[in-house]
Amino acid sequence: MKQAVISLEGITKTYVNGKLVVPVLHGIDLNIYEGEFTSIMGPSGSGKSTFMNILGCLDRPTSGSYKLDGEEVATLSDDELAFVRNKRIGFVFQSFNLLPKLTAQDNVALPMVYAGVPKKERKERAAYLLDSLGLGERLDHLPAELSGGQRQRVAIARALANDPSIIMADEPTGNLDSKSSVDVMNIFTNLYNEGRTIILVTHEPDIATFASRNIVLRDGYIVEDKQNPNMAGLQTVQAPTESVAVSPATAQKAVKSVIPKTVTEKVNTEQTNEGGTSHV
Ligand SMILES: Nc1ncnc2c1ncn2[C@@H]1O[C@H](COP(=O)(O)OP(=O)(O)O)[C@@H](O)[C@H]1O
Ligand SMILES: [Mg+2]
């Protein structure tokens, strides 16, 4: 039987800003299993981002239990939560959240700073990841010098920096044109084919067809949870949207052996911690 990597019981979230009390999540029970590709849909304001931020260890629930690989994380301190996040979860945002003054390569290398990876290796690995996502010629570019699709690929490379088994994304195609969206979804499909667990929020039904399981959230409750027997799979990108186009074949090759194990082993043995808390 497959392992539940994420196990939620009675998760609630209520925002309190002074006298304003906003209950958003009302008690969510959910198991997500290793290797699943789950989409979460729902109307604007239904609590998708709130839920995703809790799943991604960017925020804590107000009550309930969240077990990640069997470990209770609902009650961890900020620093403990940041540590868990940096090690186990790669998070991709709608607005990319790249640091504008850092090059693509340095943006991708950043989570490895927090993980204590030596500089030379972080540079090499960041270059490797970017190259594997079709951005080998863009290492020294600043985010402002890249297209939206390219920025999102940099953000995906950054999410992969520490070789997490879980990739989470909140509307990752929300700011992209349809061809770049397919590029990005092909990359997620390849990550799924590699055995990673993917959780993705979207409001686009087309994007949800890439997932193996479709969940619908409404008013802070899960109102639908179905397997998708007709996953979209890798799609052909009709024409290059940018100077570097990722064909399904390239994307497949790209993400196949995306992480040289030597790097991850090094991370575990060489704890030369140079930084504090990761926010990526
Ligand atoms: N920090 C916050 N403080 C107060 N209310 C919030 C905060 N963040 C989100 N909300 C409210 O929670 C509800 C759900 O928001 P959100 O999770 O962003 O929904 P979605 O991502 O589905 O659009 C909305 O009513 C929103 O206004
Ligand atoms: Mg949202």
From TrEMBL:
CDD domains in UniProt: ABC_MJ0796_LolCDE_FtsE
Write down the top EC class of this protein. hydrolase
Residues in domain ABC transporter?
Answer: 6-244
| Gene Ontology MF terms | ATP binding; ATP hydrolysis activity; transmembrane transporter activity
InterPro entries recorded: AAA+_ATPase (IPR003593), ABC_transporter-like_ATP-bd (IPR003439), ABC_transporter-like_CS (IPR017871), ABC_transpr_LolD-like (IPR015854), MacB-like_ATP-bd (IPR017911), P-loop_NTPase (IPR027417)
Which cellular components does GO assign to this protein?
A: membrane protein complex; plasma membrane
**What is the name of the protein in this document?**
Macrolide export ATP-binding/permease protein MacB
Q: Name the species this protein comes from.
A: Veillonella ratti
Annotated gene: macB_1
